[in-house]
Amino acid sequence: MIDLEAVRKLDIQDGNLLVVPENTDQEDMRLLLEALNRMKSGCQVLIVRGPLELMDVGAMNKLGWYRA
Q1: Which of 45, 44, 3, 41 is nearest to 25 (CA)?
Q2: Dihedral sign, Cα of residue 13, residue 57, residue 54, residue 48
Q3: Which terminus of the chain has a lower count of CB atoms within 10 Å, N or C?
Q4: 31 three-state secondary structure
Q5: Domain ranges of the chain
Q6: In whole angstroms, what is the distance from residue 38 CA to residue 59 CA?
């Protein structure tokens, strides 16, 4: 089960990146996405497991995630 207290952003907007705890399993992430789609139809978000802070700028750039 996802610990909702550990989710960083709950005011979901189109294009948001949601970071869930590292121990969140794939099925719970899928259920979260389904629930968000029911709440905000057409709203597209990206759900990532674990802290993004562990990635350095070079690694993010290789994935196309450019920091401002």
Answers
A1: 3
A2: positive
A3: C
A4: helix
A5: 4-62
A6: 33
In the predicted model, what is the mean pLDDT of the chain?
Answer: 84
pLDDT at position 63? 85
Tokens 């089960």 appear where? 1
Query: Which residue's entry shows tokens 């709440």?
Result: 39
pLDDT, one tens digit per residue, over 5-35 is: 887 666 788 888 888 999 999 999 999 999 8
Q: Which residues contact 32 (CB under 8 A, 6 or more apart)?
A: 2, 18, 20, 47
Residues 6+ apart with CB under 8 A from 25: none
What the block records as the tokens of 15 is 């294009």
